[in-house]
Amino acid sequence: MTPHLPELPFDLSPFGPEAEWTYDNGVLTGRAGARQDRFVPPGGEALDTVSDAPRLLGPAPRGDFQLIARVKVGFAAAFDAGVLYLHVGEREWAKICLELSPDHPTVCTVVTRGHSDDVNSFVVDGDSCWLRLSRTGSAFAFHASPDGEKWTFVRVFALGEPEQAAEASVGFLVQSPTGEGCEATFDRIAFRAAGLEDLRDGS
Q: Which end of the chain is more exposed for a tag (fewer CB within 10 A), N or C?
């Protein structure tokens, strides 16, 4: 696929396992293979024990921003997910997921600082949800929405050293930790070069 999406002010590059990313008519599609995930178990000992999943990432411009997409997942097995992904370093990265966790579609987040945490936020009705990844000042925030209008605050966090955070890469990931593979689509993709004045007011 082309490394550039017209909705984004930066080019994208593939990372992780090889995957066939496609982009057509405003819809980005990716597929994870069997048992592919991006997660470092909290009880593990080393980052090199992490499995990996296909990612498509690019360097976000400096300053505040919002990356938004409606994510739809072809759920087949527990923890299949479509993800907005944030990368600031090999040991510092984060994701907001629409995930089958394990029986119901759920908005979940992971923040990795050497090891990953894992937080379930709320159950989603159906196989799609709007997700948003934002940088406001030196912090990052995750939000989710059923319609792309009214947003629910999920999480705010710092990640990496200030210079790492300022040079973050962002993009998309698909995972299938326990299954034979998973396809996810991302549409209504938007990038806004502005932060959020209030993380909790639904805007």
A: C
Contact indicator for 4, 18 with CB cutoff of 8 Å: no
Residue type, 101: S
pTM: 0.95
Are 13 and 58 a contacting pair, CB within 8 Å? yes
Q: What residue has token string 């987040």?
A: 109
Q: For the chain, which residues make up each domain, given as ranges?
A: 13-192
Q: Domain 13-192, what architecture?
A: Sandwich (2.60)
Asked whether the predicted pLDDT for residue 189 surpasses 90, the reply is yes
**Bridge partners, 143 (sequence order):** 132, 153
Letter string b/e over residues 121-148, b meaning 16 or more CB atoms within 10 A of that residue's CB: beebeeebbbbbbbbbeeebbbbbbeee
pLDDT of 2: 56
Tokens 């937080």, located at residue: 119
C-alpha 71/C-alpha 85 separation (Å) is 12
